[in-house]
Automatic annotation (TrEMBL):
Span of domain NHR: 40-206, 274-441, 480-646, 679-847, 875-1045, 1086-1250
Protein task: Promotes CCP110 ubiquitination and proteasome-dependent degradation. By counteracting accumulation of CP110, maintains normal centriolar homeostasis and preventing formation of ectopic microtubular organizing centers.
Highest rank taxon of the organism: Eukaryota
Molecular function terms from GO: ubiquitin protein ligase activity
Location in the cell: Cytoplasm, Cytoskeleton, Microtubule organizing center, Centrosome, Centriole
InterPro entries reported for this sequence: B30.2/SPRY_sf, ConA-like_dom_sf, Neuralized, NHR_dom
Species per Swiss-Prot/TrEMBL record: Oncorhynchus tshawytscha (Chinook salmon)
The protein, known as: Neuralized-like protein 4
Length: 1524
């Protein structure tokens, strides 16, 4: 090109001078550009429903970016002018979703557009660039175009342009990516879709390209004009073609950066469609990924019928390339690839392509077969049978007719010299080959992977089997494990490859990735010691394995950013390809110190295990491929690490001295993360709508109101014979028909193609659906003993295969009998749950596991997982598996050795929780023997021991070495029998009858032994997490009994005392106190808010008061101090509410230091180690794990006192006005920090000031209760005597509505108690705030009654002559429904009268009374026949009931309509009385309504109606009102 100079000689005209003169084309082009009107760089005000516009409509933001990924469509304000590049800048992205910004053009006017959820839904003339694909009206027209938009980052700029020739161009950061489409009409609006990760963009310009870019475009124009005159036209006819025949060749011209030009290629059957697999394929083939991926079903059962072909013929010189995604080791032979002249639409697909005897050329192994016969035996040095996952295979049909094959991008030469002009590519997924994907040359990441593979293919030992290696290689051999020299940007390798470090660890916290120099052998331990740490950063060392070769890997900043072939342990979780698969896996690596060691091993069965200080953390993953490299990421605090030589394979939880297991070594079943009942989890593979959370214990169906299927989940390992897999239903919706389905399948999760519903599977599957038992999708029997469609929230479902092959179902712990027989014995079966229809969320219960005597009769519910001991006050039991000389008594609470001096080992029935003490008392000794009791902890799971107690256990605990065992024998501490420490403390040999000995595992992973309650200090360190207590009745000690109790026996029913009253609710004086139910609160640490907080927070009063000063969010707070165990953290009160907003405060705990936390706008955006209480739900890392927990926090009025407590079992409790709401979450880490979100209505809270002295909770409760007793002699509820500033009733709208209705009744105020604090509202929010139970006892003898939930009580004044105190304590409580017209007469007589019982006396009418309500006419005795009226006067009868579910029925309490004078809305109301009834003055009888279903779950229909004839037997206590 010549040199251009621009000169403005005439206004409105721009002249261009160059060495070649001024061209007419350029002059016209430039003049037109100078005269154009600049288009407004703004967005149209009409947009997607989640879009918010700002900055003069230049900035668009997608609302709710964490909860929603679509509905983010925006268009330009005006249509694009030719050559204008409409450019936006990516401002914000989130990592919650896949996919990102999409951009394009549309001919649809935004003013009248019904916006779809995403840009790909636009039709009627729309071209969209999505990822690296181009779509027209939602259908792909070009694959692998330009830059991948999903890989762009914040700050990158993306533009779209229609050229003057009607072509669509994409611009990325000022670079033209070439023509994406042609033939575009005029009048197009720019389209930007804030999809997936992209949440905010800003329009930066809408103008033609800059001068430099203009030169490039002009060159393209000139080339196009030259080609149109020269004969190289793609779209038109060539002047040299003779007769005008179109060019049948293909011109793949990458315009401006890799985009292929879209001109239609004429002639033959060639089209411009993307090269995909044809929809017609072999019988076992499943297509996915827009027909780019093909996979053979049932790869372990079938080896052929896996033929696929392309959707169109190959063009000349067009590369067809596939990537091998999955192989299996079962078969011989592997993938075959080639070409055929057969049209896939007409072909009857053979079992294998080499069976075809015409028009077919295939590469098989390393040879070429033509029409099924070998024509070249040694075509190339590579064999297709030796390729591995990730390798690429390609072929090309040259214009000369020659056929070439490519292995990892390397041309293998001419396979056939002459092939027909029209051929289709064909792939045969045969034998080992299971899954392949079509790849394209233009994709940069694929090219990078292919180049890496090429270098691997050129290595001398590729494809050859590796020699067998010993379990622990000799460090002096060349095979020694060292770090590879290729490492992260900020890392360095020293000490001849043994040590890796970050030299500038105080300046940078990442780019410290190092890999091993060679792949790990099976069972080879890679272990490093942390040499140096720095305190500046958060986070620490991460370790794992990867399939990537370090020689060719572009090392990321952190290894968890790698999205393929990588497994990493980070913190206390495990990530696979950047996604968390285990939340709470093992010891937290962030807490390690210099000198600690971490390790990893891949076992022969493909399972991956991690080690911390030599202690196995359990299986972390399965099906990890061989030949993986070890990875260490020196992240954050970790600054230097050294490889440890001579590391033997530590004892793994599944290792056994009994010999190899009988299970398949390739199965996860052989990896007993299954070493205990608690290892059962949901598998990481699941249906598309399912989500696994809570450490694999909880499964839920997302979008439950728009999706009803595709939510199948499966157990992480196969079930053992006699093992129960039980789940509890936690959430349901009433939108759909049908509900949960449950069963078992013999299909491994890795081989299961998850269908819409599990009953669609036609092999090796047994399911219970409703009442039908189905095998392989066919109904075997109907009317089984239970109906899954009738189960409700809280119901438990279990399934178990017996040793004889029978399948049993359990509903709420009750065996429903044999569902079907003939399940293949010895074959692996997995539990399957289909979250279908109404069922939305389930969790695995702790009763899942091998069944023994202690579990067969347990009645474990969602809120009470721990075993309940039959002995009062004892929460521990002994396991039924024990030594052969042991007999268990007292239902597992006592153990006696009946013979000899040994074989007396016994275990705890369950794993011990952190800091949980297991303690026994010595009952008997026999002095003829020497030695004494041994006690300790073991990783051996007793459920895995043989059923016969005569085998499987060592004679003494010191010889128990099949699993890691720590024990105290005498005064010596031993580990697996080896002496670790002498003179630990008082010798166990000196203990005698009455002495107590206990053991516990503390939160710092140490074992402590207690003798007679005295802690002897740490006996052992680095104790594993999942351990059982174990003791040996050895020598002198022949009998012991358990004396310990769990800190948390029943989280659902045992509540701590109130902080404002000793009485939790009505009738508490009749309860029997539960030992240990009250947590031992430690002296309070003074708490204050941290200076690091949300941007709208202002702290005052020495950081004890926090206020949100603007907006409704950005109000996050944490405390500066961690929350100690057993200390109640209280937000003294909610100071200020703003009714202008919706929602309110949420609170919880966060498990990592908040000092450098970058606070998001709301707490629900925190996704790392966070437990949050919001509304009436519990969230863990932003996913809901529990519903209907405690009161709805959005309804808490001003003055409410909220508190948090983490008990000794690491369980989180919520306190509301001093009432413990039970366990909200488990496994809370140490340390944890209280977290508060001042959101919506809640604008200010304050913490209590440091108290001058500590007052015990119990003393305070007693003081408050005595005051309540002096007032009225009854202990009913915490609100009988609330703190004057903590009255939860003062803002209850429902109580205010009921009060307004009471005022309409014009009843004299003299009938009611003047003190309004005795009026109680029983709406859902109020009774939950008080912590009311549903039922209580009252009177002598005590009798049950129900609280009137849903009603509002107004306390009545007591008559002076009544002994109120005595009546309240000794009389029973009952209810009486009546009519509005009978209220005044009843109150006038101060007792219930005959004729006021509405079942005998009320007939509703529809007249409207003078006070604005419709009143049923009172039915007096005058309306009865004379004989009945006489009997009514002689025998007065009053109907009562202990529950308002009966007395509140409309038959007894007719509804009246009234208009609320405040809101002017119409409501319906009912009335009744709460009364005290003298015992013995009434008769209990059946209900008289003819109801069939139970009216109240606590009271039988035969005892729900009380009749009294004693006029002095009732005492009016309160007026009840219910408004609808």
């Amino acid at each position: 090109m010549g040199q251009f100079a621009y000169q403005e000689n005439i206004p409105g005209h721009l002249y261009c001078h160059c060495s070649g003169g001024l061209t007419n084309t350029n002059a016209l082009f430039l003049n037109s550009q100078a005269a154009r009107v600049k288009m407004a760089a703004e967005l149209h005000p009409c947009s997607g429903k989640l879009i918010g516009l700002s900055n003069s409509n230049r900035t668009a933001q997608r609302n709710q970016p964490v909860q929603e990924f679509n509905h983010g469509l925006v268009l330009s304000r005006e249509p694009l002018k030719d050559r204008d590049v409409f450019t936006v800048r990516i401002d914000k992205k989130v990592n919650s979703w896949s996919g990102s910004i999409e951009i394009g053009v549309t001919s649809l006017d935004p003013a009248g557009l019904d916006f779809p959820s995403s840009a790909t839904g636009l039709k009627g003339g729309s071209w969209i660039v999505s990822g690296c694909s181009v779509l027209r009206d939602g259908r792909s027209v070009l694959e692998e175009y330009g830059r991948d938009l999903d890989q762009l980052s914040e700050g990158d700029r993306v533009g779209i342009q229609r050229s003057t020739h009607g072509e669509l161009h994409l611009w990325v950061n000022g670079q033209d990516c070439g023509a994406a489409a042609s033939g575009l009409p005029t009048g197009l609006w720019a389209v930007v879709d804030l999809y997936g990760k992209c949440t905010q963009v800003t329009v930066v310009s809408c103008e033609p390209p800059s001068l430099a870019e203009r030169d490039t475009e002009r060159e393209t124009v000139e080339e196009r004009e030259g080609s149109s005159s020269g004969g190289g036209s793609v779209n038109g006819n060539s002047s040299d073609s003779g007769g005008g025949t179109g060019n049948t060749g293909s011109v793949n011209s990458p315009a401006g950066g890799g985009g292929a030009r879209l001109g239609a290629v004429t002639g033959g059957m060639l089209t411009n469609d993307a090269l995909l697999f044809h929809e017609k394929c072999g019988t076992l083939i499943k297509l996915s990924n827009n027909n780019k991926t093909a996979e053979r079903r049932r790869p372990l059962d079938e080896f052929n019928n896996g033929v696929v072909m392309t959707n169109r013929p190959l063009r000349h010189n067009e590369m067809f390339e596939i990537r091998i995604d999955k192989l299996v080791d079962k078969w011989s032979g592997s993938i075959e690839i080639g070409v055929t002249t057969h049209n896939p639409n007409n072909l009857d697909y053979p079992a294998t392509m080499t069976n075809l005897r015409s028009g077919t050329i295939m590469m098989s192994g390393c040879g070429i077969l033509t029409n099924g016969k070998g024509t070249r035996r040694e075509y190339c040095e590579f064999s297709l049978d030796e390729l591995q996952e990730g390798d690429h295979i390609g072929l090309m049909h040259k214009a000369s007719g020659a056929l070439h094959f490519y292995i990892n991008g390397i041309d293998q030469g001419v396979a056939a010299a002459q092939t027909p002009a029209v051929v289709y590519a064909v792939v045969d997924l045969y034998g080992m080959a299971v899954k392949v994907t079509i790849v394209h040359n233009h994709n940069h990441s694929d090219r990078l992977r292919r180049n890496n593979a090429i270098m691997r293919a050129l290595s001398p030992d590729v494809g050859r089997p590796r020699p067998a290696h010993s379990l622990t290689p000799d460090p002096d051999t060349p095979d020694r494990l060292l770090f590879h020299s290729n490492c992260g940007q900020k890392a360095a390798i020293i000490s001849e490859g043994r040590t890796a470090l970050r030299p500038h660890a105080t300046d940078d916290f990442n780019h410290g990735v190092v890999l091993s120099g060679r792949p790990l052998h099976s069972n080879e331990v890679f272990q490093v010691r942390i040499d140096k740490m720095v305190d500046k950063w958060a986070g620490s060392i991460e370790i794992g394995v990867t399939t990537h070769n370090p020689a060719y890997l572009q090392l990321p900043s952190t290894m968890t950013n790698l999205r393929s072939g990588t497994w990493m342990m980070t913190g206390n979780g495990v990530m696979h390809n950047g996604t968390t698969i285990l939340d709470e896996y093992g010891h937290n690596l962030d807490r390690l110190k210099a000198g600690d060691t971490v390790g990893v091993v891949r076992k022969e069965d493909g399972s991956l295990h991690f080690f911390v200080n030599g202690v196995a953390q359990g299986p972390a993953a399965w099906n990890v491929p061989p030949s993986v490299y070890a990875v260490v990421d020196l992240y954050g605090q970790a600054a230097q690490a050294t490889i440890m030589d001579d590391v033997d394979l530590p004892t793994l939880p599944e290792d056994s001295s009994e010999g190899p297991t009988v299970m398949s070594p390739s199965s996860p079943c052989s990896v007993a993360g299954g070493n205990s009942a608690n290892d059962l989890r949901f598998h990481q593979l699941h249906g598309t709508n399912a989500v696994i959370t809570n450490g694999g214990r909880t499964a839920l169906r997302q979008n439950c109101r728009s999706e009803f299927n595709d939510a199948i989940v499966i157990s992480n390992r196969c079930l053992r014979d006699g093992e129960l897999f039980e789940i509890v239903i936690q959430k349901m919706v009433d939108r759909w028909s049908g509900s949960i389905e449950a069963g078992v399948t013999a299909i491994r999760p890795e081989e299961l193609e998850f269908p819409n519903t599990m009953t669609d599977i036609d092999y090796d599957t047994w399911m219970l659906s409703g009442t039908a038992i189905m095998q392989d999708g066919n109904t075997m029997r109907n009317n089984y003993g239970c109906d899954l469609d009738t189960l409700t929230t809280g119901s438990r479902i279990g399934m178990m295969r017996s040793a004889t092959g029978d399948l049993h179902y359990y509903i709420n712990g009750v065996d429903q009998g044999v569902a079907c027989t003939g399940l293949p014995p010895g074959k692996e079966v997995y539990a399957v749950i289909d979250l279908y229809g109404q069922c939305v969320q389930v969790s695995i219960t702790s009763s899942s596991g091998p069944q023994d005597n202690s579990l067969c009769t347990s009645n474990i519910t969602e809120r009470s997982f721990p075993i309940h001991s039959p002995v009062a006050g004892v929460a521990h039991r002994l396991h039924s598996k024990h030594g052969k000389n042991v007999v268990l008594l007292g239902e597992g609470c006592q153990a006696v050795r009946v013979g000899g001096y040994a074989h007396g080992i016994v275990f705890s029935a369950k794993e011990l929780k952190t800091d949980e003490l297991f303690e026994v008392k010595i009952d008997e000794v026999d002095d003829q023997w020497s030695g004494s009791l041994h006690m300790g902890l073991t990783t051996l799971a007793p459920p895995e021991l043989p059923s016969c107690p005569m085998s499987g256990l060592s004679p003494s605990l010191t010889q128990l070495r099949s699993k890691v065992t720590w024990l105290l024998a005498g005064s010596e501490v031993r580990r697996n029998g080896l002496l670790q420490r002498q003179n630990y403390g008082a010798s166990l040999d000196r203990l005698t009858v009455g002495n107590r000995v206990g053991v516990k595992r503390c939160s710092d992973d140490t074992m402590h032994v207690l003798i007679d309650g005295e802690d002897m200090g740490p006996a052992a360190t680095a104790v594993a997490k999942n351990v059982y207590a174990v003791l040996d009745l050895y020598g002198r000690v022949t009998a012991v009994s358990i004396v310990s109790s769990s800190v948390l026996e029943d989280a659902g029913s045992v509540k701590a005392p109130s902080l404002s009253s000793d009485s939790c609710s009505e009738g508490e004086e009749d309860r029997t106190p539960v030992e240990g139910g009250e947590p031992a609160l430690v002296p309070n640490t003074v708490m204050a808010f941290l200076e690091n907080h949300g941007k709208n927070i202002q702290l005052s009063h020495e950081n004890l008061t926090a206020a949100r000063v603007s907006s409704y969010n950005q109000g996050l707070l944490v405390t500066a101090q961690p929350l100690p165990r057993q200390q109640l953290f209280q937000v003294l009160c909610i100071d200020r509410l703003n009714a202008s907003w919706t929602s309110s405060l949420s609170l919880g705990v966060i498990g990592h230091s908040p000092d450098r936390l970058n606070f998001p706008s709301t707490a629900c955006c925190l996704k790392r180690s966070v437990w949050l209480l919001q509304r009436d739900s519990v969230f863990h890392n932003s996913l809901k794990i529990c519903e209907n927990y405690g009161p709805n926090l959005d309804t808490c009025p001003e003055g409410t006192v909220l508190g948090l407590l983490v008990d000794g079992n690491s369980c989180l409790h919520l306190y509301v006005n001093g009432m413990d709401q039970g366990v909200a979450a488990q496994d809370i880490p140490t340390p944890c920090y209280p977290l508060i979100d001042l959101y919506g209505q809640c604008e200010q809270v304050r913490l209590p000031p440091p108290p001058p002295f500590q007052t015990s909770v119990k003393a305070r409760c007693q003081g408050d209760m005595e005051k309540a007793d002096m007032v009225d002699g009854i202990k009913e509820s915490v609100c009988w005597m609330p703190h004057p500033e903590v009255n939860p009733n003062k803002t209850c709208e429902y109580q205010a509505l009921c009060s307004r209705f009471k005022d309409l009744l014009t009843l004299p105020d003299g009938y009611f108690n003047e003190d309004a604090k005795y009026n109680l509202c029983y709406c859902e929010s109020c009774h939950k705030l008080r912590g009311d139970e549903s039922y209580y006892k009252r009177g002598e003898p005590p009798r049950d009654y129900a609280l009137p939930f849903g009603w509002c009580r107004f306390a009545l004044r007591s008559e002076p002559h009544c002994d109120v105190s005595n009546s309240f304590k000794q009389w029973h409580i009952a209810y009486h429904g009546t009519s509005v017209g009978a209220l005044r007469r009843t109150l006038d007589h101060a007792q219930l009268l005959s004729g006021t019982s509405s079942i005998f006396s009320v007939s509703p009418v529809k007249t409207e009374g003078p006070n604005g309500y419709s009143e049923p006419e009172e039915n007096s005795s005058n309306s009865l026949p004379d004989r009945d009226r006489e009997r009514d006067r002689e025998v007065p009868r009053v109907q009562l009931s202990p529950t308002m579910r009966y007395s509140g029925l409309e038959m007894f309490a007719p509804k009246v309509q009234f208009r609320d004078p405040r809101s002017h809305c119409c409501h319906q109301a009912q009335v009744g009385f709460q009364v005290c009834v003298r015992p013995g003055s009434y008769k209990v009888g059946p209900q008289t309504l003819g109801a069939i279903e139970p009216l109240d779950p606590r009271f039988s229909n035969t005892e729900i109606e009380w009749i009294t004839k004693d006029q002095g037997g009732t005492l009016l206590y309160g007026l009840l009102i219910r408004v609808e």
